[in-house]
Amino acid sequence: MTNLNPHLPEGIPTRMPSFEAAVNGIVGYDFYRGTFMSYSGYHSMARILKLMNASLKYTYSAEFMSGTWQKVLTTRVSSDHMRFMARCALSHGCKAISWFMFHDRDCWGDAPVSSHGHSRENLDVLKEIPELLFKKIKNWDTLQPQYDVGIIYDLIQHRHTYIGDPSPCNDNNLYIGKPFIGNIPAGKASKEYIGLFRLVEECGYQADAIDIVHSTENLRKYPVIFLPGSALIEKSVIRALERYVKKGGVLVISGILPEISETGEGVKFFGIKKKMERITTITYGNGRLVIIPEYIAQDESEEENINSIEIVKRILQQYAGDPVVKIEIPSPVKWTDWKKEGGGHTVFTQPRNLGSAILHRNKENAVLFVLNHYPEAASFIITFKDRYYRILKNLDTDEVIPVKDGKVILDIDRKSACIYLVQ
Fold it and tell me: What is the pTM of this model?
């Protein structure tokens, strides 16, 4: 058994199966976040878990934050935060959680238990999660999150990122800069990879990570695969993608087309000889290659370009069809808060969809996670691809909610996750 300390697998490229082979056991990841779960923090955790699911035999967190590194705090590690963070991880296939910072010691503060053994309110969350998973949900370990499309994780792209990074363990800052390959700086492909997950989710779909060198067969799961544009690509990846498209798959690449293999040799990506000036679709065998000549996923979290979201949405609607479960907002979400500068209140409007819906299935059950990442309570329209579902049962309250023609509207508190048994 071993664990990976917090870092971006994109900033410090990680071949997780190598860790698994080295320890001849299981590999976990250490998750730490701030005391108010950010949307970018959620996506970082979700993306890592998706890669673990694609690469490892078992996905779990070896250290999961339950306290923080400071005794004198401006905010508390609330039970709401702990519950939301845990459910965000569970929603993307984290099968087990080893809570860390269980009690105050050294500079750790606000843990579930004091240095003298007093229990605090967030201790209840540690008791609640096992009851939820092993009493209210049947066969939790066999449930699998259902995704709609895939995004390629090719290690060589991310190696370009970390070569010039002066602080590769700073997982709050993805490096972009020297060395350049052609005109492309290190970090561009990694940032595109990270941003594509958000763009897909903001369209109401869910994207899986494809560890293409380790688990090439996972390409077959999805009708559409996204490849972040990079000057570098592994030769085995080109061959796998060509087979996938020839057999009817749709490959979408955004940004520069690959030019160099992992051994430094020149490559012709799908035999393309010229740079495209606009979005172009090429037929290749029984499938299609969609080329977006510019990077579209370089924006910061919650500031994604609306036009980029629309580009991805059109591609998904045309080639992926309906998602397993779609989440939408009826209208832009608004809230009143202090201005960032100048003092006073103002109304903030977020037109982007910051909700997540992840359906888990096994042979017996279907379980739905619905997450609200807004700082305000919000309503979400949920639409199931399979229209035979009739009710949702809230596993916290036992409330039964009817589903009509595959649709239901759910009201979720801010920074919260509700879990439903789907019947």
Answer: 0.95
Nearest to 311 by CA among 202, 208, 219, 221: 202
Residues 230, 184: contact at Cβ < 8 Å? yes
Domain end point (choices 115, 138, 161):
138
The full DSSP string for 169-195 is T-TT----EEEEETTEEETHHHHHHHH
Examine the domain organization and report whether 133 and 157 are in the same domain: no
293, 378: one domain: no
Give the tens place of pLDDT for each residue, 18-68. Answer: 888 888 888 888 888 778 889 999 999 999 999 999 999 999 998 888 888
Q: pLDDT tens digits, residue range 313-330?
A: 999 999 999 999 999 999
Q: How confident is the model at residue 3 (pLDDT cuts 50, 70, 90)?
A: low
Across 82-206, where does the E strand assignment appear?
96-100, 144-145, 149-153, 177-181, 184-186
Under the banding of pLDDT at 50, 70 and 90, the label for residue 6 is low
Distance CA 224, CA 289 (A): 10
The domain tally of the chain equals: 3
- Contact status, residue 212 vs residue 153, Cβ threshold 8 Å: yes
CA distance 293 to 296: 9
Buried b or exposed e, range 277-295, using 16+ CB within 10 angstroms: eebeeeebeebbbbbbbeb
In this structure, the answer to whether residues 165 and 314 fall within a common structural domain is yes
Instruction: Tell whether 36 is covered by a domain.
Output: yes
Backbone φ and ψ for 90, nearest 5 degrees, come out as -60, -35
Instruction: Give the SS3 label for residue 269.
Output: helix
86 and 164 in one domain? Answer: no
Residue type present at position 301: S
Residues 6+ apart with CB under 8 A from 141: 95
Range of the domain at 67: 2-138
**For every residue of 391-412, which 3-state class applies, written as one string?**
EEEECCCCCEEECECCEEEEEE
Q: Are residues 341 and 309 in the same domain?
A: no
Measured CA angle at 316 (ends 375, 389), to 5 deg: 70
Strand order in the sheet with 391-394: 144-145, 355-361, 366-372, 416-422, 391-394, 400-402
**Rounded Cα–Cα distance for residues 349 and 335 (Å):** 7
Which tokens in the block code for residue 265?
């040799």
Compute the chain's Rg from CA coordinates: 22
